[in-house]
Task: inverse folding
């Protein structure tokens, strides 16, 4: 069974529904349509679907964004990742993350960031396998009261310098 | 669209409204799927915090209530006979108490706990509508005093306690949705009401129960519990009476009430008949997704005991005799075990008051000065210059400016100590830049002073610089805490253990050197004073001898006691530092032994494709990258250090055994150091005050060092286990048999998890 990956087509109304279906089935955090719109309308090129041979609808998706982080570096962000229950343990999530990071690297991101539940060892293992490290722990971060780790993957040297020291003097002064 | 149709069907159109449904549908039909209608100024990110109508997970108006919940009426009595009414009121009041604990101790929200009570909603809605300070607009009108008087009192008590917590929360020490949920759904928590008003109401209820309901012992206890609970409001720094020692009687009484109430079985939920429901989330303004109400489990009264005990601990800061004792209380009170959110929030407010004083005893500047004085400033050229009436006013002026700077960083330090464990570590991350910048500035100032002859010599080549020395000490402690707390929070993976423990060792080495400088300087000053007496004995009677005698007596009276105390305190800090240094070194050795067999490496196993081991290392040490002193060792130096520790041929076996022996010997010495610390902490029993300044946190500080002792023993036995499993011959095949995993010894210090070997 082969799996193909492609970015979202924002002009196709059904694609938002596919993302909602995949994510809502899986994540503990309830997301409103605005959250999806926030990501998909602004960074459609950073949302990827996984299609399994013989399946009409996508079986997995990753939703990302990138933006300027405090005027100092370009930060990519993995917001959501889900694979339908029946298609797990086939490396689909890993491949979705890989294509997303490749895209963020191509865009020029200095680092990629995400949060994940401390108890979610599967997700931690997946991301740590890409070179992410746990930068900090956040107390009762999720609605289910669980702590989260903030994970970062450094793509360039800029990721390794404190923001304050990346800013021009006048910018630092304003901040 | 189905959702929209349902919404439209619910709308009642009258003459004031125009039906635009068709226009809306026609326009919507022509929209592209990616179109979003929004004001240009509206950032889509703001929308991510919105709720969504008709989404079952986000729209609390879709909550379904039971028939009983829907028909519940606060204007009616519940219970047929008199004893049934008493049972009902007692059950509601009991649930209110339990809801307080669920809200605070279990980190739940107000709407799912206290505000799920219909009586709370009813009375607070009345008060919000007409907020009068005598509470005359808030009442139940059932015509039965158990409800209209006693239950109302309990509701007032609960509301007043929420108001107290809200006030604490506004101080900004604890964080919304992280430490505490204070969303009161737009209800006014008796903002204008004075404590005395609620106290009187509760007092009346108490008298009423005593007179008319001799069997209502449980309800009476609950009324007393609320009476003690609202008394906590007195501890707020805005209370004008607070300059007296805090009256902790209410806390003692609170514990007594809770002890008795916890013996009584929790009433069955069925008695409550819909008095607690999620309905408020439907009826009032709700910015959060719908949530089920939280059911008590039965042990909630223990929660009040926790609140009271933790508050007693933080209020004991009032008994501190020195700033070192205040600093030590801050260092230990929230270190091993997270203290109750109310105690953590109150601590900083209580310590550092709105009137710019510390405990109403010191100004912020005096407080900062005493930190310096109780460490390195006593009997220095600078302190003499500051004390001298004919001293240079510019020196004083600039020194005072630095005290302001120091106060602001110290404030951050004290605030950090009261935060949750994650924020605690992050607080140090922020502070490091502040300490570093302060150190650079203060060092320049001290060099200027030296130019003016205000200088203390440590030896022929080095000056002491008492201010820089203290700032450096504080900075190193913050750096070390930041590193070690990462282990507690499970932030580091096993491959990072070498770098983090080696760096911890490096920091401890700097700290140890710094403390040795202070110790040497203080000893010299003590010797100088003692020598005055020797000189005195040699002098013949006369004016010169009289003058020297006066000087000797004055220095013995003013400087000597503080110098001796500082010397002892530094000795304790040195032991503390040595323990951390050696434990870190032992970890480094054990990592290197495992690496010598190829069982572990210090490079991120997954950093190849998109990143590099160097980037991940540098990202991990980003916090320290800009620190001037001590300079962050280069990536290459970290690598080289590991290579230096790793055992290679020739004589692999004997080198390995020497490493094991050395580590075990060093760890045995740590146990001795810890024994000395235990003695120091227990000095409380024999001396007026403990030399470690831990008088007020003896139990907590002992627990911390006992944890370190257990970790030391665990490292010793882990070393022996590694010795047995690894053997003494170089081998690369053990990786097929063993894997490295992280273990945390029971009762051990969370800063020192172990790298153990287990079968594959």
Result:
């Amino acid at each position: 069974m082969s799996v193909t990956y492609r970015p979202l087509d924002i002009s196709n109304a059904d694609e938002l529904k596919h993302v909602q279906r995949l994510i809502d089935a899986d994540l503990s955090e309830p997301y409103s349509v605005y959250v999806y719109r926030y990501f998909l309308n602004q960074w459609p090129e950073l949302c990827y679907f996984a299609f399994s041979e013989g399946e009409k609808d996508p079986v997995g998706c990753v939703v990302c964004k990138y933006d300027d982080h405090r005027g100092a570096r370009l930060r990519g962000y993995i917001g959501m990742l889900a694979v339908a229950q029946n298609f797990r343990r086939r490396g689909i999530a890993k491949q979705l993350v890989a294509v997303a990071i490749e895209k963020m690297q191509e865009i020029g991101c200095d680092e990629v960031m995400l949060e994940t539940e401390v108890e979610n060892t599967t997700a931690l293992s997946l991301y740590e396998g890409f070179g992410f490290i746990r930068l900090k722990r956040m107390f009762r971060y999720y609605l289910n009261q669980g702590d989260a780790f903030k994970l970062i993957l450094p793509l360039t040297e800029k990721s390794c310098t404190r923001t304050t020291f990346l800013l021009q003097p006048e910018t630092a002064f304003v901040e | 669209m189905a959702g929209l149709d349902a919404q439209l069907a619910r709308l009642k159109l009258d003459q004031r409204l125009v039906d635009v449904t068709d226009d809306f549908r026609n326009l919507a039909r022509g929209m592209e799927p990616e179109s979003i209608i929004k004001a240009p100024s509206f950032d889509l990110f703001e929308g991510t915090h919105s709720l969504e109508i008709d989404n079952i997970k986000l729209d609390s108006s879709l909550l379904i209530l039971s028939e009983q919940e829907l028909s519940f009426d606060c204007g009616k009595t519940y219970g047929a006979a008199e004893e049934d009414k008493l049972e009902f009121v007692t059950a509601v009041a009991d649930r209110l108490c339990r809801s307080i604990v669920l809200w605070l101790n279990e980190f739940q929200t107000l709407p799912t706990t206290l505000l799920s009570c219909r009586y709370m909603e009813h009375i607070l809605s009345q008060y919000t509508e007409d907020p009068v300070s005598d509470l005359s607009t808030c009442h139940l009108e059932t015509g039965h005093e158990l409800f209209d008087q006693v239950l109302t009192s309990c509701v007032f008590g609960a509301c007043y306690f929420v108001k107290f917590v809200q006030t604490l929360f506004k101080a900004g020490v604890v964080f919304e949705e992280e430490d505490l949920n204070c969303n009161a759904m737009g209800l006014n928590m008796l903002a204008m009401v004075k404590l005395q008003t609620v106290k009187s109401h509760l007092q009346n209820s108490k008298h009423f129960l005593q007179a008319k309901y001799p069997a209502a012992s449980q309800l009476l206890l609950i009324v007393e519990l609320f009476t003690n609970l609202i008394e906590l409001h007195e501890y707020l720094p805005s209370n004008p009476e607070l300059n007296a020692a805090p009256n902790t009687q209410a806390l003692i009484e609170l514990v007594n009430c809770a002890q008795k109430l916890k013996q009584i079985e929790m009433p069955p939920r069925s008695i409550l008949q819909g008095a607690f429901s999620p309905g408020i989330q439907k009826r009032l303004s709700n910015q959060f997704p719908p949530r089920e109400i939280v059911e008590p489990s039965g042990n909630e009264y223990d929660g009040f005991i926790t609140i009271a005990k933790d508050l007693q601990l933080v209020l004991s800061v009032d008994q501190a005799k020195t700033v070192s004792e205040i600093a030590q209380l801050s260092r230990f009170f929230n270190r091993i075990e997270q203290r109750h959110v109310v105690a953590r929030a109150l601590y900083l407010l209580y310590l550092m008051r709105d009137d710019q004083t510390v405990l109403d005893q010191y100004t912020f500047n005096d407080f900062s000065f005493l930190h310096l004085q109780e460490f390195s400033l006593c009997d220095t050229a600078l302190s003499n210059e500051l004390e001298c009436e004919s001293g240079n006013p510019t020196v004083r002026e600039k020194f005072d400016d630095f005290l302001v700077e120091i106060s602001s960083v110290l404030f951050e330090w004290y605030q950090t100590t009261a935060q949750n464990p994650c924020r605690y570590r992050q607080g140090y991350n922020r502070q490091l830049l502040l300490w570093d910048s302060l150190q650079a500035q203060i060092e320049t100032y001290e060099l200027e002073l030296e130019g003016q002859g205000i200088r203390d010599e440590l030896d022929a080549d080095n000056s002491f610089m008492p201010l820089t020395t203290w700032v450096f000490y504080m900075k190193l402690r913050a750096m070390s805490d930041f590193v070690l707390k990462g282990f507690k929070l499970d932030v580091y993976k096993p491959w990072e253990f070498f770098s983090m423990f080696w760096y911890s060792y490096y920091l401890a080495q700097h700290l140890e050197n710094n403390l040795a400088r202070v110790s040497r300087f203080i000893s010299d000053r003590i010797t100088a004073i003692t020598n005055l007496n020797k000189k005195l004995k040699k002098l013949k009677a006369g004016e010169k001898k009289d003058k020297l005698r006066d000087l000797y007596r004055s220095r013995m009276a003013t400087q000597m006691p503080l110098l001796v105390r500082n010397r002892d305190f530094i000795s304790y800090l040195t032991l503390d530092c040595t323990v951390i240094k050696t434990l870190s070194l032992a970890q480094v050795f054990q990592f290197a032994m495992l690496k010598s067999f190829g069982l572990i490496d210090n490079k991120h196993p997954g950093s190849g494709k998109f990143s590099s081991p160097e980037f991940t290392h540098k990202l991990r040490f980003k916090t320290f990258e800009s620190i001037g002193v001590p300079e962050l060792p280069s990536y290459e130096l970290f690598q080289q250090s590991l290579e230096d520790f790793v055992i290679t041929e020739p004589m692999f076996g004997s080198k390995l055994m020497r490493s094991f022996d050395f580590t075990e010997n060093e760890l045995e010495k740590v146990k001795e150091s810890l024994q000395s610390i235990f003695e120091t902490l227990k000095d409380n029993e024999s001396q007026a005050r403990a030399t470690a300044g831990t008088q007020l946190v003896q139990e907590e500080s002992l627990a911390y060092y006992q944890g370190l002792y257990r970790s030391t023993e665990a490292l010793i036995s882990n070393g022996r286990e590694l010795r047995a499993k690894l053997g003494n011959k170089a081998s690369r095949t053990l990786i097929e048999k063993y894997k490295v995993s992280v273990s945390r010894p029971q009762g051990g210090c969370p800063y020192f998890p172990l790298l153990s070997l287990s079968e594959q």
